[in-house]
């Protein structure tokens, strides 16, 4: 599929239907995350391919959003192989992905190359926090990562 920014992300199996905002890099070189706010959307790392292009399109979302409660990816860890993820794109097309696997990893062992490294097909990576919630609002111990591949682009 040609380059076209994602506008909406739908994951019927876990009840996600959210807008998608572009995310760049923070001053420390890490990918920014969506704001901690009520109804915070998912965010697409605009340094990655757009969903449907060859390579791994990376979308991040919160599991919780501080005092606002559940985040858009609250149930990302419930996804299973075969589940569908639909991305509505700015050009009016829809990129449909099928989940291949779901991985929970310690943040200290984040698989950067596996998530952001080149692949020879259109892929999607969904990322949120997981594991044990740390005290004092310091986040979570782990990341949940969903790996999916394009099955239809129309």
From TrEMBL:
Recorded superkingdom: Bacteria
Keywords on record: Hydrolase
Keyword Iron: no
Keyword Amino-acid biosynthesis: no
InterPro entries per the UniProt record, alphabetical: Sortase, Sortase_dom-sf, Sortase_F
NCBIfam families reported for this sequence: class_F_sortase
Name of the protein described by the UniProt record: Class F sortase
